[in-house]
């Protein structure tokens, strides 16, 4: 059994909150693994034949490689618990920016509803940086490793500013830059999926009125749109811990907490997340004005084209101060 709803990204734009809000609905079953990333699996590219006139069904593709057949089986098993749920979904934020994910989604789940949430790309880059600094710290990375990540981030921004974006991405920071070309990515998806199967909205929509936005999303999916969210707390917000050891105790390194989170309802997880961040998180570094200026230069043309594509005013994303579109 495969999904009939996929959240395709963008990363650090509220996809975890969206996943939780979807999963809370009684007619929706979301994969217990939030980001299975099946459609960016390199095995799919290894067996797909792009030659003109040569076509293979997904079944024929998986028959060519035992590892892919096994991976597909694992992916399908994620939806075994869906029962009679009207919607079976998953959320893998890497799909949007990946060059071939749209093609694989089209081949395997051509009728799926796709949901995309977009965030000011400069702020999203900053959120990526803060989040990865926290994740690196969670795993006990050394100061030298953290400094390497910082250097990589700034060097990648400088290179994109001076030379434009280059393909392919070879490190995390380059993937973050690539993801921000939303017009380019949405155009790729829209060439393969009809407009009625795609819903695109902004991070600001989710932040300002989560209930209103989800009412619209539920309607798009054909489930009861009168459902009231049990929580509108933001999930997976980028935070900087006051104390790394204490923060890790409540995140990565505590199996009891992990089991408790997996069993707790959305409202309780939201409350716990809010409390954890309030008590354990320190002040978050402000967005670097010079980095923002450079990234606006990198993304300007794509943002202007995106405005026309989705019919939204994105002038705040071109504001070098970032004051009009601040987010968590």
Keywords, please?
328 residues; 7 strands; globular; single chain; Rossmann fold; five-stranded parallel sheet; two-stranded antiparallel sheet; alpha/beta
Descriptive report:
With 328 residues, the protein is an alpha/beta fold. It has a domain at 5-120 and 181-233: Rossmann fold (3-Layer(aba) Sandwich). The protein has 15 helices and 7 strands. It has helices at 15-24, 42-47, 58-64, 66-77, 101-108, 121-138, 143-163, 172-179, 182-190, 203-208, 210-221, 244-249, 255-263, 266-280, 289-310, and strands at residues 5-9, 28-30, 87-91, 113-118, 198-202, 240-241, 281-282. The strands form 2 sheets. A 5-stranded parallel beta sheet has the order 2-3-1-4-5. The protein has a two-stranded antiparallel ribbon with strand order 6-7. Helix 6 packs antiparallel against helix 7 (143-163) and helix 7 packs across helix 15 (289-310). It is globular.
